[in-house]
Amino acid sequence: MVIKRVLVTGGAGYIGSHTCIELLKEGYEVICADNFTNSSTVALQRVEQIAGRPIPTYTVDFCSKEQVKRLFELEKIDATIHFAGHKAVGESIEKPLMYYENNLVSLMNLCEALGRTKAKNIVFSSSATVYGFSESLPLTEETPTSAHNAYGRTKLYIEEILRDLAASHPGWNISILRYFNPVGAHSSGLIGEDPNGIPNNLMPYISQVAVGRLEKLRVFGSDYDTPDGTGVRDFIHVVDLARGHVAALRKLRENPGYMIHNLGTGKGCSVLELVRAFERINKVRVPYELVGRRPGDVAENYADTSKAKKELGWEATHTIEDMVRDTWRWQTRNPHGYKKIQDRLPAVMFKPINPAYLPKENMRFIVPSGQPRQQEVPHPPANR
Ligand SMILES: NC(=O)c1ccc[n+]([C@@H]2O[C@H](COP(=O)([O-])OP(=O)(O)OC[C@H]3O[C@@H](n4cnc5c(N)ncnc54)[C@H](O)[C@@H]3O)[C@@H](O)[C@H]2O)c1
Fold first, then answer.
1. Does the active-site annotation cover 151?
2. CA-CA distance, 194 to 322, in Å (whole number)?
């Protein structure tokens, strides 16, 4: 099977934008579709700048059956990488229906459209959150799954829906990738994680403290049974993660049916180790205070990555030092993320390849965009 044209849903988001670059580097044609509720078109302009190629982009809400159908009428797609979805654990506890609707309906609309094509090939963004509170480490793809919030349940339900689909027709090829803790940014400093409001995740929180946007980091729990008492997680550089998708796509060519792989480094790093690495490498201070444990957090969590290595020929290569250095480069060059930067684009370092960038000339609107960015819900830093 030939896979050449890849649809990236949620391609303007944090992981999607980095994946677009790795796909383009590998010679794939990328078509991007996003409703921009949690992302900026500037991210895609930057991707084009890095890759030196334009990306056909559609404003599509995957919850709209009509829009998804139209997209597939307009574009011939060989495989789809499905990033589009809501992702904040805390928000999902407050607004479970919003999560079920956005994550499940969009997946079902996408699969319905894919089902009408010959290219029933999909890579899905799952999460290590599906391992729930498992204490048996490292976490393998065989570790029993469970979910403890609406976000995690959407990931588990989608994994099961996709399993049923794979069983329903031999034409389906489905790759489930369970991400551990994606951090870092592209080494150019042009794209990175741009959370709305108070970051949900540890690394953007650390970098916003370091840059002076937030006062101090609160470290939840310092009495865990770990080397320094703080929680241990498997942080993975977003570029390694992006390359994991390229590896999964390569595998889909072999008609594997349904497969699940962990994408992590296999190594745990504590919250304080990460903070200290950030300070040491970037020569900045990250004021923090140790506070009580947060309900729902496990002491330690890291992946067994041997299956991805064996079956996908993929393994993470970036170190913690790379992760903190690249995060800081992105943060210092874009202290307010993609916001405001747009005004400064031509003046500063971001010289567009094509002067007709704004408005993006190859952006095709299936529906008028302009939906407001999602409501900001402040949450303490969490590991998804
Ligand atoms: N970042 C993490 O820590 C992490 C960890 C595990 C899994 N994941 C999963 O990976 C995927 C990508 O995560 P991310 O960090 O890049 O998130 P992100 O919010 O940066 O990207 C998601 C993108 O999807 C878009 N989107 C959301 N709903 C949509 C819809 N209905 N139609 C069209 N576009 C829509 C958003 O505008 C955004 O551009 C998500 O599914 C997330 O659950 C992320």
1. yes
2. 18
